[in-house]
Amino acid sequence: MRIAFFVNSIEGETTYYTTTSLALAALARGHEICYVTPGDFVLRPDDGLLVRATTLSGSKPKKPETLLSALKGEQAKISTIDMRDVQVLFLRNDPSEDADKRPWAVYVGTNFGRLAAARGVIVVNDPDGLALAQNKLYFQGFPEIVRPTTLISRSIEEIRTFIDDHPDGVMLKPLQGSGGKNVFKIRSSGEANLNQIFEVASGAGYLIAQDYLPEAVGGDIRFFLMNGRPLERNGIHAAFRRVPAKGDVRSNMHVSGTAEPATITPQILAIAEKLRPKLIADGMFLVGLDIVGNKVLEANVFTPGGFPEVAAIHGVDFSEDVIISLENKWRIQQLYGGTVPNRTLATL
């Protein structure tokens, strides 16, 4: 297979990204890989869809450092490829990273992903499903029982009232965002700097206010689902606990959170099962859930990360499992002559 990884930028890719692990796993299993960024698609007058892809020449890298050095160095080769010669387009960009400086790039993955799927390319996660999940409002479509009590508003008066109704405090964050940016814990509506926090957090639009879960002091659990089910091998789950740095309420790895082993309880498995119907219906192939206690804080569907952390803790590289699943989808597509809809194929 030829697998194209769609990312925000090649320059921004790092050794600890899950995308890097996935690319190495694909190479190890004998597949071709290429990287694609928002400015690389071409739709010609004859309706041909092409992409200017960064490919590798020479020997296949086996280490993250070697792979990224090759992608960013002289080994990299830019080739114009007909999308029909790509078997899988793996959408691994974070739209929120482009929202401020490159707003034109935010919807490129989903828009051109649809065009690719229409031409027989397996696109994961399904672009129509991802179009529904461009911001955290998507999360409100999951069962209420698994979600913290939530207010979405741009009104500071509404937010103050919500804070007053939750004596344990409230987490405040932008509706569009990731990586723990502009996430605040508000203890009371009387905080002297609430107006300043509101101005900072609301700069990108609507805000989410959620009741603070006391269990969050110990961090959250990043728990991976593939094809709507827990990603697991030989009794080991693709999961880890994200522990916040001292004095920080955020457990994101981008803001100095650390990874520790996580215990996957029947309660956590039951939570995942409650989310499964919607994830399958929306064609969400690979998802990372952030779980605190009996609640899901977020469902990461664009570029869930953490495979290197899981591998470091458990010695299991789940990237191989993901590539094997893509191989199975390709076989199904060939068996059925491309008649299985992409959204269905994405979670088979």
TrEMBL record:
Catalysis performed (reactions): gamma-L-glutamyl-L-cysteine + glycine + ATP = glutathione + ADP + phosphate + H(+)
Source domain of life: Bacteria
Cofactors required: Mg(2+); Mn(2+)
Record SUPFAM superfamilies: Glutathione synthetase ATP-binding domain-like, PreATP-grasp domain
Catalytic activity, EC: 6.3.2.3
Keyword Aminoacyl-tRNA synthetase: no
Pathway participation: Sulfur metabolism; glutathione biosynthesis; glutathione from L-cysteine and L-glutamate: step 2/2
Keyword Acyltransferase: no
Residue ranges annotated for the ATP-grasp domain, each copy included: 136-327
EC top class named in words: ligase
Record keywords, A-Z: ATP-binding, Glutathione biosynthesis, Ligase, Magnesium, Manganese, Metal-binding, Nucleotide-binding
Record InterPro entries: ATP-grasp (IPR011761), ATP_grasp_subdomain_1 (IPR013815), Glut_synth_pro (IPR006284), GSHS_ATP-bd (IPR004218), GSHS_N (IPR004215), PreATP-grasp_dom_sf (IPR016185)
Family statement drawn from the similarity comment of this UniProt entry: Belongs to the prokaryotic GSH synthase family.
Protein name: Glutathione synthetase
